[in-house]
Amino acid sequence: MNLDLDKLLCEKYPKMMVNRNKPMQETCMCWGFDCGDGWFNILDQLMGNIQHHIDWKNGQRARAIAHNQAIIHAQRIPADWTKFDQIYHDPSKWNNELRQSIIDHKAELRDVPAECPQVTLDQVKEKFGTLRFYYTGGDDYISGMVTLAESMTGVTCESCGNPGKRRGGGWVHTYCQPCEDKRNASINER
Predict the structure, then answer these.
(1) pLDDT (tens digit, 0 to 9) for every residue of the chain, 190 residues total?
(2) Beta strand segments in the chain, E
(3) Is the dihedral of CA 53, 58, 62, 67 positive or negative?
(4) Distances from the Cα of 45 to the Cαs of 39, 79, 88, in angstroms?
(5) Contact by Cβ (8 Å): 97, 107
(6) What's this model's pTM, rounded to 2 decimal places?
(7) CB of 164 within 8 A of CB of 126?
(8) What is the rounded (10 degree) CA torsion for 133, 37, 12, 118?
(9) Angle formed at CA 142 by CA 162 and CA 114, multiple of 5 degrees
(10) Strand pairing of 120-127 and 33-34?
């Protein structure tokens, strides 16, 4: 992938790119995104969806924990709401129905979802005509997103991003017909 597109992905998704500048003894991300420009949009969407999912899931977890802590704390000091509001900072954000349900002991604790570990990239490359997206972290939902994105590259030209198909005998690649013709012409000129 050209350096401008590589840099753009690194800037947009810094949490995933913690391995980008590590030495080759520690990570393969030191070589950057080792695929054609045509897969940029697939990578951009994949990485954006992954980061959104992680942030959303961990936000849900944080809200459930805060909710549960508020209920537990309020049940200990139900008459002292000024102290409660000081502890939880901004009383204007408190839902009065929640406050009343806590007073009436009707508020229920929420299930706290598991934390979704931050995805960090280990290697992104083309192999046998499709994308290989190696990473650490995430959950099963993210694994499904990666599988879908990798399969989409099998029908997307790696060079230009148009619809393509897998070609070749020795070096398997996914190109559209115009890009394949250009590739063959450059090989024949040598």
Answers:
(1) 999 999 999 999 999 999 999 999 999 998 999 999 999 999 999 999 999 999 999 999 999 998 888 777 766 654 555 555 555 555 555 555 555 555 565 668 889 999 999 999 999 999 999 999 999 999 999 999 999 999 999 999 999 999 999 998 788 999 999 999 999 898 888 7
(2) 33-34, 120-127, 130-136, 165-167, 173-175
(3) positive
(4) 10, 50, 37
(5) no
(6) 0.81
(7) no
(8) 0
(9) 165
(10) parallel
Rounded to an integer, what distance in angstroms lies between the CA atom of residue 123 and that of residue 80? 54
Side-by-side strand order, sheet with 130-136? 33-34, 120-127, 130-136
β-bridge partners, 143: none
